[in-house]
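Milestone M4 deliverable, item 7.
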Amino acid sequence: MEGSPRIRALIAKVGLDGHDRGAKLVAMALRNAGMEVIYTGLRNTPEMIAQAVLQESVDVVGISSLAGAHVETARMVMEALKKKGVGDVLVIMGGIIPKRDFETLNRIGVQGVFSVHASFEEIIDFIRTHVPRAQEVSA
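Output delivered:
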């Protein structure tokens, strides 16, 4: 592989949550920060996301949740990732998520939780801090 390996991120929407503007904006911000980004589109199952993570060899999975089912979505996605043997990928989640649910999501395995008020810089910095090869990647 030539040069430094870029961080590979997968951005996904799960279930019937049809609001994807935020997910697309985060995908664009990550791409502008030098990451390779795969956006899976709307209406994915947890199994579809896990399969995409396996096929694409991503470093980070970002789940966008605006429909209020974030805790159950996180549980199902984490279970699907473990079943596929990719439970060691960095998982972050963002959207309309009350602060009271952040700790629950962390216990489930979501390492980073971002409200709609988080900046793109916060998300990018978190990813770079938690993906080991990020130190090799220039912004």
